[in-house]
Task: inverse folding
């Protein structure tokens, strides 16, 4: 049988394998007409002027529109496609950034800074494909989903105070856009890991292998971005096609130990680097799922121009490009790998200094021969990156915590090339600048105080600002949004906008835990819609294969983010709420009470009262008493008639009243006692019935019972009157002793009790001892017995000791029969407390059934044990 | 305070008026108005000049002035005063026109206070005469209470600061005074107009309807009828003609009619000016709603801001109710005890409101201190007047210092400033309570004079 089955199984396996294989092939090839899910991975390296290196990872996965509903994705992350479908996201961008892009030295005009330089913290914007009234709900759900997906507090963007709806100044302008930032969000590996999980190869293969966490987070700036665009959702039943673009931009300082050693004298020499030196890793082949896997090295326009200049100066054989084995050398630098292709930027305007792009295909490398691009500079070069036409910065003005002003200053970068980009005739050359500023509600901006300075001269707002859109902040509801279009003359060297604000005062709950650190005003966005950052590398066949290059080709407006501002706000005293509440309420009570008192006062009567009082100068006591009696009656009484007898009358009345009250109290107490006694009797009866007249370990929990005893004690104390000082001093102890005494007396030696009590009373401290000897055995309450035992020992007289010893023995026996002992004998000490809590003594335990024990919460095993033991005893 | 008043009274009235106006103008010509317009004591969210300008700007840029939570005033104020926030005269201070309006409002208020005070004093003497008490009074020094009140109002540093600090409280005060003036001089449409405008501007003067009804019903100073009856029983003659007129409903119905007319008028005007925006509902929400819910927690001289900044969120509504009810609950007892002195009742109401309102400013204090001047003669026996005077001076010196320590230097904390606000509230409480009991004592004295117990009059 078994022998027969095995070949069958094998056959089946082979068959299914065949089938699966063919299916997989079918899946990957798909039908010719339909597009494929694709994945591209690319890395761009670019030396920056200030000895740093820009590394820009670009991963793009795309899913074509498909008809099936719950389709299977080969490459595309399912989480993202579900998110797009559920929230009808048309376009979305999420970025996590640490550090600030240095526009001055890293450039502000290329497409890398204008689309990848992001404000610190988290920035999220999304365009939805839903009707207006649903957008906010969609946004809220989206923030929650993303916050779960990326382990970040993006859900804080949910509240309406945190996001805004820019109308036209934010580049992908449309009515369905929502924009929010969290400037203070800390970015760490926790955010990178989920981001990497969206890649088909994660960081296990291909270019993403380079993503070594420590070296990334050591960088000066890193920004991890996720941009998705969905297309073609128009037709019914068709899931939208999605393009997911994931970029990671890191600015690193190459570790240039060797270079500095070699040329210590040269200050300006750029550091040499290689992939392994900056990331500590190498690329061993491409990610198999990727269509293309390329590494680019970009030398920007400024650098190329500078190199050309140097070549001319040197007058050497400039174009001596040698390619020895693996190295590729140029007069100015040397690459450790031979570029597969060299692109030169095709641009009609800037033809003199096109930037150069070297392409390396990772495909050709393998594990045995990993790809490790290195660049070694031969000569020192100094160049500048291309700047945006105006450099924007923002700062706060004013001091103190009451008010201030935000200033946005724009300084011309004097980059001649920048202005060439905009084709204006010289007559009316104008520079258009869009400013988009969001302020949180507690920064209460006075929009009427907007002032514009051009070249340090104040200008009329209407001359400079062509268009303005403002949505003022509502307290605790929405942030303030300001969108401006400025038209500045081209010759401008500096321009500034100032706007005043008052600082709000928050409720103590609204302050973050570190309230004194201050609050962040998110970055303003300054964009230049007439300037477009684009680099066109004319290589028709390869372009559609490289999303990075096609990205470069896109015309995106030049954009820059300003600094995040930290606004300190006044703090109230956080420790004060109770004081403030009580003091304020006291003041209100003072107002109300004293005013009412003034209104209802009858001066005439008071005067008469005072006069009478002055007239008869009786002693202080009668006066006091009369006042007291007046108070007792609850109204201002007429003064007592002047005879001394009246005072005694009042006195007698008072005495009568006191007695009456005492009597009432007494009756009430008696009633209580009777009731308490009735209650107790059941238990005592049980005690009597039990095999042992053990002292019930009654924990005094009921307040009433304690009261009874106190009362009894007081009453007894009153009667004998012989209690000396010693007893008084040990009043509490005596009370405790009496308590145990009563217990004993009530628990069976009833006949004697009366006599004993009396004796006890008469002999003061001496007699309680015999009974008192056993309390030390009671372990039920830990603290009191100790103290009590001390008291016993000090007052224990010598001749009684023998008697106490016997008593103790007895008590030992009793303890054996107690619940505690019983449980100990079963090895179930840990349940003692459970029984104590429920006040179960041995008597009760005997009558307990399985269900009762279950109700106590005793597990099955111990329960059975207890029941068995009880049965065996019984 | 009394001494000050006496001193003031001895000078020529008009000299003082002119001096105070000139003083204001001098202050206005100081650069930036000495930054008074941004002091928390002067400009509350309701009266702030900058918020008015912001509201006007929003309206000019075709947005609702209540968009955002900046402006919380009346739309009428926006149309009247708004243009003045922008108008500039070359070579003159920025907000000269607006400041001039405030100065004029102050002077008009002072004149109205003066004439009201005079008619009040006249009525007082008439009622004394009708009780045959004139000769008892003649012995003591009698001030012209109208002059005193007007001068106290004009020369009060609080008034000056509120006027120079460009707050809207001079206008609000003028509306309140207009209402009282109209009621005292029986110009019912004017009284109704004043009342409607004052209520429209700051809500709290709504409770002035009670003193106004008494004023219109019984006249400015009517001793209780019981006194007359007692008096005449003593004499043994019952002269019906000499009895003061009872409560007459005619003028009150008249007043109600005019109040209705004016409020409809005001609402229609507001509706027109807010037509393209949120409409009247938005206006009520961001004016009265803002007053009642104490949304703005920026510091002022009241006690509620800090309370609501600290109190737990789930108690907030409860305490809002409690604090507002504090004003309402005391209305009835006061009206019962002081119904024969409606002007004094009005003063007490104004004082209580300015103490307990959600965003008090010194402008409100200036109003009731001015009105207090009407009763110099009656309140000459008031206790603690020196203590109160010193307290007011002390608080007005300490409060800016504490504010500076907390907000600007960061060396103090909020409790310091709140403590001065507390002291200020207590001072006002003492003033009101002592004022009320002094007035009641005065009445008692009169009664004892009538019922013929001369020995009591001294005590």
Result:
């Amino acid at each position: 049988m078994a022998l027969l089955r095995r070949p069958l199984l094998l056959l089946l396996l082979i068959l299914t394998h065949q089938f699966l294989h063919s299916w997989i092939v079918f899946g990957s090839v798909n039908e010719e007409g339909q597009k494929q899910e694709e994945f591209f991975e690319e890395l761009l390296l670019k030396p920056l002027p200030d000895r740093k290196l820009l590394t820009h990872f670009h991963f793009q996965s795309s899913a074509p529109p498909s008809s099936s509903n719950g389709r299977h994705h080969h490459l595309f992350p399912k989480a993202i496609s579900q998110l797009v479908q559920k929230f009808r996201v048309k376009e979305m961008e999420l970025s996590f950034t640490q550090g600030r892009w240095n526009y001055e030295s890293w450039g502000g005009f290329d497409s890398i800074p204008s689309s990848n330089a992001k404000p610190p913290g988290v920035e999220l914007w999304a365009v939805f494909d839903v009707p207006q009234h649903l957008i906010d709900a969609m946004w809220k759900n989206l923030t929650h989903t993303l916050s779960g997906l990326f382990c970040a507090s993006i859900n804080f963007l949910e509240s309406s105070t945190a996001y805004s709806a820019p109308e036209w100044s934010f580049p992908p302008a449309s009515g369905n856009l929502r924009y929010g930032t969290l400037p203070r969000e800390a970015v760490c590996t926790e955010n990178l890991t989920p981001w990497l999980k969206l890649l088909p190869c994660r960081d296990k293969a291909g270019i993403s292998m380079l993503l070594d966490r420590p070296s990334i987070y050591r960088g000066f700036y890193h920004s991890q971005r996720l941009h998705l665009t969905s297309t073609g959702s128009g037709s019914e039943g068709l899931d939208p096609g999605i393009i997911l673009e994931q970029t990671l931009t890191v600015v690193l300082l190459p570790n240039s130990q060797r270079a500095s050693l070699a040329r210590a004298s040269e200050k300006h020499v750029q550091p040499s680097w290689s992939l392994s030196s900056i990331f500590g890793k190498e690329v061993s082949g491409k990610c198999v799922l990727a269509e293309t896997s390329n590494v680019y090295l970009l030398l920007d326009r400024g650098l190329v121009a500078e190199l050309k200049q140097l070549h001319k100066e040197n007058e050497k054989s400039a174009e001596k490009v040698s390619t020895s084995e693996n190295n590729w050398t140029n007069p100015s630098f040397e690459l450790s790998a031979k570029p597969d292709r060299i692109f030169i930027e095709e641009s009609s305007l800037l033809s003199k200094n096109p930037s150069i792009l070297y392409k390396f295909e990772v495909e050709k490398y393998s594990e045995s021969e990993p790809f490790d691009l290195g660049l070694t500079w031969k000569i020192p070069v100094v160049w500048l990156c291309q700047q945006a036409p105006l450099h924007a910065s923002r700062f706060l003005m004013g001091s103190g915590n009451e008010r201030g002003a935000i200033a946005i200053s724009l300084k011309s970068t004097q980059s001649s090339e920048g202005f060439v980009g905009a084709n204006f005739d010289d007559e009316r050359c104008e520079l258009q600048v869009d400013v988009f500023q969001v302020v949180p509600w507690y920064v209460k901006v006075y929009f009427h105080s907007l002032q514009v300075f051009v070249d340090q001269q104040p200008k009329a707002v209407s001359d400079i600002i062509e268009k303005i859109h403002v949505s003022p902040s509502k307290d605790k509801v929405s942030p303030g949004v300001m969108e401006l279009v400025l038209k500045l003359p081209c010759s401008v060297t500096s321009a500034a906008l100032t706007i005043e604000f008052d600082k709000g005062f928050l409720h103590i709950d609204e302050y973050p835990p570190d309230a004194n650190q201050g609050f962040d005003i998110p970055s303003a966005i300054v964009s230049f819609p007439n300037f477009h950052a684009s680099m066109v590398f004319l290589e028709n066949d390869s372009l559609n294969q490289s999303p990075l290059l096609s990205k470069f080709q896109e015309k995106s407006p030049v954009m820059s983010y300003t600094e995040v501002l930290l606004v300190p706000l006044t703090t109230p005293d956080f420790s004060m709420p109770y004081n403030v509440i009580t003091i304020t309420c006291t003041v209100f009570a003072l107002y109300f009470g004293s005013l009412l008192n003034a209104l209802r006062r009858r001066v005439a009567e008071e005067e008469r009262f005072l006069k009478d009082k002055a007239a008869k100068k009786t002693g202080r006591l009668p006066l006091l008493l009369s006042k007291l009696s007046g108070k007792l009656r609850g109204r201002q009484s007429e003064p007592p008639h002047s005879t001394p007898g009246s005072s005694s009358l009042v006195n007698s009345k008072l005495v009568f009243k006191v007695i009456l009250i005492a009597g009432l109290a007494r009756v009430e107490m008696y009633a209580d006692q009777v009731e308490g006694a009735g209650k107790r009797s059941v238990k005592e009866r049980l005690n009597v019935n039990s095999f042992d007249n053990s002292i019930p370990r009654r924990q005094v929990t009921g307040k009433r019972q304690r009261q009874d005893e106190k009362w009894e004690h007081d009453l007894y104390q009153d009667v004998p009157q012989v209690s000396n000082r010693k007893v008084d001093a040990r009043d509490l102890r005596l009370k405790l002793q009496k308590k145990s005494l009563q217990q004993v007396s009530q628990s069976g030696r009833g006949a004697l009790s009366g006599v004993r009590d009396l004796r006890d009373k008469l002999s003061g401290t001496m007699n309680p001892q015999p009974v008192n000897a056993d309390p030390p055995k009671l372990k039920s309450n830990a603290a009191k017995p100790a103290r009590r035992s001390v008291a016993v020992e000090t007052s224990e007289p010598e001749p009684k000791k023998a008697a106490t010893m016997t008593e103790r023995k007895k008590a030992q026996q009793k303890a054996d029969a107690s619940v505690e002992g019983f449980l100990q004998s079963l090895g179930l000490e840990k349940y003692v407390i459970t029984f104590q809590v429920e006040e179960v003594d041995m008597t009760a335990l005997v009558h307990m059934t399985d269900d009762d024990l279950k109700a106590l919460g005793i597990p099955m095993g111990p329960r059975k044990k207890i029941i068995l033991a009880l049965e065996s005893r019984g | 305070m009394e001494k000050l008043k006496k001193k003031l009274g001895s000078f020529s009235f008009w000299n003082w008026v002119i001096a105070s106006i000139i003083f204001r103008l001098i202050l206005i010509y100081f650069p930036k108005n000495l930054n008074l317009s941004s002091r928390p004591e002067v400009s509350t969210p309701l009266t702030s000049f900058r918020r008015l300008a912001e509201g006007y700007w929003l309206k000019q840029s075709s947005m609702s002035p209540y968009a955002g939570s900046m402006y919380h005033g009346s739309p009428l104020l926006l149309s009247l005063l708004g243009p003045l926030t922008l108008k500039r005269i070359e070579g003159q201070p920025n907000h000269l026109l607006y400041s001039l309006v405030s100065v004029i409002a102050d002077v008009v208020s002072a004149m109205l206070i003066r004439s009201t005070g005079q008619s009040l004093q006249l009525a007082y003497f008439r009622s004394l005469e009708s009780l045959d008490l004139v000769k008892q009074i003649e012995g003591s020094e009698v001030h012209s209470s109208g002059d005193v009140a007007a001068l106290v109002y004009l020369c009060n540093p609080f008034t000056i600061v509120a006027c120079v600090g460009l707050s809207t409280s001079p206008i609000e005060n003028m509306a309140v005074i207009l209402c009282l003036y109209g009621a005292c001089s029986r110009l019912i449409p004017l009284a109704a107009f004043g009342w409607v405008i004052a209520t429209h501007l700051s809500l709290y003067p709504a409770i002035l309807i009670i003193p106004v009804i008494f004023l219109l019903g019984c006249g400015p100073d009517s001793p209780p009828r019981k006194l007359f009856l007692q008096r005449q029983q003593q004499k043994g003659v019952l002269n019906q003609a000499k009895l003061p007129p009872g409560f007459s409903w005619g003028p009150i119905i008249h007043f109600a009619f005019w109040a209705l007319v004016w409020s409809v008028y005001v609402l229609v005007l507001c509706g027109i000016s807010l037509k393209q925006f949120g409409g009247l509902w938005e206006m009520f929400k961001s004016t009265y709603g803002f007053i009642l819910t104490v949304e703005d927690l920026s510091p002022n001289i009241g006690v509620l801001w800090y309370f609501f900044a600290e109190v737990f969120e789930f108690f907030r509504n409860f305490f809002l109710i409690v604090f507002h009810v504090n004003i309402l609950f005391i209305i009835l007892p006061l009206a019962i005890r002081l119904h024969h002195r409606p002007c004094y009742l009005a003063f007490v109401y104004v004082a209580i409101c300015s103490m307990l309102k959600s965003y008090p400013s010194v402008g409100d204090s200036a109003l009731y201190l001015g009105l207090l001047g009407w009763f110099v003669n009656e309140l000459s026996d008031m206790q603690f007047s020196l203590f109160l005077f010193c307290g007011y001076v002390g608080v007005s010196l300490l409060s800016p210092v504490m504010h500076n320590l907390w907000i600007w230097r960061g060396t103090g904390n909020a409790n310091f400033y709140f403590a001065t606000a507390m002291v200020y509230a207590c001072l006002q409480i003492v003033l009101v309570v002592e004022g009320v009991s002094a007035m009641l004592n005065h009445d008692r004295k009169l009664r004892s004079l009538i019922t013929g117990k001369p020995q009591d009059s001294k005590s």
About this structure: Residues 644-689 of chain A form the longest helix (46 residues). The CA atoms of residues 462 and 642 of chain A lie 92 Å apart. Chain A has a mean pLDDT of 74.
